[in-house]
Write a structure and sequence with these properties.
Keywords: Membrane, Transmembrane, Transmembrane helix. There is one protein chain. This protein has eight helices and no strands. Among the domains are: about 50 residues, no CATH class; about 55 residues, no CATH class. It is mainly alpha-helical and about 160 residues long. The longest helix is centred in the first third of the chain and has 19 residues.
Length: about 160
């Protein structure tokens, strides 16, 4: 018995429809302890009375997102929001640097350079600018390995300190 071209075409069309159904199915959302921890930290950030409390809660959410291992983009978003919430805090920059240096060094480099560009380098923001310079120095000493940039960041941190 020979299969005609119509049967082959119908089989290919059925396989294509099956492929489309599998690819277009709605994504199932997993509710696990990690997302509950992130949700709790986000709720604390919403209820925060001061910018420092809001930044701490957002850093906690970033740390919780990283503990799952696959939510690096969400963690970066939380850390950037924390930096915006309290622009004078050096602690937020240190937490972000410590959390992201190994996993995404190039992304951390971009974040810290933008932080240095946005912050004024005097007054209340001096500590945050110094923390960003120190974070870049450590990044260039270890993960990215660029001695000249590390030296420049060391000199900048010393000037700001």
């Amino acid at each position: 018995m020979e299969l005609g071209w119509r049967f082959v075409l119908a089989g290919v069309a059925a396989l294509f429809l099956l492929f489309l159904l599998v690819k277009m199915r709605p994504a199932r959302r997993r509710r696990d302890a990690l997302s509950e921890e992130v949700q709790a930290a986000r709720e604390r950030a919403r209820r925060a009375a001061t910018p420092r409390e809001r930044a701490e809660a957002l850093c906690d959410a970033g740390g919780a997102a990283l503990r799952g291992g696959r939510r690096v983009t969400a963690a970066v978003g939380f850390f950037v929001r924390a930096m915006r919430a309290d622009p004078t805090s050096a602690r937020v920059i240190e937490l972000a640097s410590g959390a992201l240096a190994r996993r995404r060094p190039r992304l951390l480099e971009k974040i810290l350079w933008r932080r240095l560009a946005v912050l004024p380098w005097d007054g209340d923001h001096r500590d945050a600018a110094r923390a960003a310079a120190l974070g870049l120095r450590e990044l260039y000493r270890r993960e990215i390995r660029d001695r000249s940039r590390a030296e420049i960041m060391r000199k900048l941190a010393r000037t700001l300190g």
